[in-house]
UniProtKB/TrEMBL annotation:
Subunit structure: Homodimer.
GO molecular function terms attached to this record: 4-phosphoerythronate dehydrogenase activity; NAD binding; protein dimerization activity
Stated role: Catalyzes the oxidation of erythronate-4-phosphate to 3-hydroxy-2-oxo-4-phosphonooxybutanoate.
Protein name: Erythronate-4-phosphate dehydrogenase
Length: 387
């Protein structure tokens, strides 16, 4: 059995090696010729899986994407060819929430405001948005949710429409899939009209799909009035993104919000389980087999610390979003935007999730326990941590 795997999928040999011959290629080099002799294909989000890719792949019987999103996969085309499909829902959701909280805490420090004083609107309350809302509520932050498909299924209680959210919130976070048509289309969900309605001082954060924002309209608002702030991890036309919009964003990162090692390995393992099931074989490799110990596993806080400063210390012990921003800036200047964008993703350093950090609290820092746990860390008082 020949299994073609995106070179950026971690632990591919450990997972898929027991099922067949593993062949690895960079995602943008996976074309119809490469797929022709494959029995299974495992990708990430940069490979477009459509009729043109699979039409000559007579042996292909399984496609898996190690990502939450599936808009890069034409599932109807796979069904027409009798090809099974699997994705990895929720695999990197925690990592994206980590990214959002880290970005907002960094921005608050830079601009001189407190996250606790802001109302945050979350557009899309699925795997990522739902978890984000849970952590924001645990932190005591005022938040609103907009998710029309969920409101239709579950009732309007707990949801607001997009216009009300834009009108009421200081921060607008997008976490929707890219849907191009139908009653709940999300392409250019923030279009020129809605971007014009954003109040001065609003922060727009997109860690969902680049096409959910009209990038040209956002660039014009940032370049013209310059009275709102953009935090962008996803972009239209990746990897050849709008360099002018990149330069205007307060935090600009190369689609890495979900790139924790934990999330990537979860994604690989979820697809491995599905391929094993498809082949009628037991999944012998466990996720625990794949996860190494974190480089920073314990942090000690003591004395009197302001709440958000304590959060920033813990966040940056795990992941500092400024590193990702600086990396894209540096590599785009060295190699050009498209090549630099891909280089940052291909060489992304190991990053863990908040839940891998144990925070020992001493003295007056003990009062931070519920705050840190709400943010996603493991908080224990002195003497309670395991050896």
């Amino acid at each position: 059995m020949r299994i073609l795997v995106d070179a950026n999928v971690p632990a591919a040999d450990a997972c898929f090696g027991g099922l067949g011959e593993v062949v690895r290629l960079p995602g943008r080099e996976i074309d119809a010729g490469a797929v022709r002799d494959a029995d299974a294909l495992v990708v990430r989000s940069i490979t477009r899986v459509d009729e043109a890719l699979i039409q000559e792949a007579s042996r292909l019987r399984f496609v898996g994407t190690c990502t939450i999103g599936t808009d890069h996969v034409d599932q109807a085309a796979l069904a027409r060819h009798g090809i099974a499909f699997a994705s990895a829902p929720g695999c990197n959701a925690e990592a994206v929430v980590d990214y959002v909280l880290g970005s907002l805490l960094t921005l608050a420090e830079c601009q001189g405001w407190r996250l606790a004083d802001r109302r945050i609107g979350v557009v899309g309350a699925g795997n990522v948005g739902g978890r984000l809302l849970g952590r924001l509520e645990a932190l005591g932050i005022d938040c609103l949710a907009c998710d029309p498909p969920r409101a239709e299924r579950e009732g309007a209680r707990g949801f607001v429409d997009l216009a009300a959210l834009i009108d009421a919130c200081d921060v607008v976070c997008l976490h929707t899939p890219l849907v191009t048509d139908g009653p709940h289309a999300t392409r250019h969900l923030l279009d020129a009209e809605r971007i014009a309605e954003l109040a001065p001082g609003t922060v727009v954060l997109n860690a969902g799909r680049g096409g959910c924002i009209d990038g040209q309209a956002l660039r014009q608002r940032l370049a013209g009035q310059g009275d709102i702030t953009a935090v962008l991890d996803v972009w239209e036309h990746e990897p050849g993104i709008d360099a002018a919009l990149h330069d205007l964003a307060a935090i600009a990162t190369p689609h890495v919000a979900g790139h924790s090692l934990d999330g990537k390995l979860r994604g690989t393992h979820q697809v491995y389980r599905e391929l094993s099931r498809h082949l009628g074989l037991p999944a012998r490799v466990t996720l625990a087999d794949l996860l190494p110990p974190p480089s920073v596993s314990r942090l000690v806080l003591q004395g009197r610390l302001e709440a958000e400063e304590a959060l920033r210390l813990c966040v940056r012990a795990v992941h500092d979003v400024r590193r990702d921003h600086d990396s894209l800036l540096r590599e785009s200047r060295r190699q050009g935007m498209a090549r630099g964008f891909d280089a940052c993703r291909a060489r992304y350093p190991l990053r863990r999730e908040f839940a891998t950090l144990e925070v020992e609290l001493r003295q007056e820092a003990r009062r931070l326990s519920s705050l840190l746990e709400g943010a996603g860390f493991i908080a224990c008082e002195h003497g309670d941590l395991p050896a």
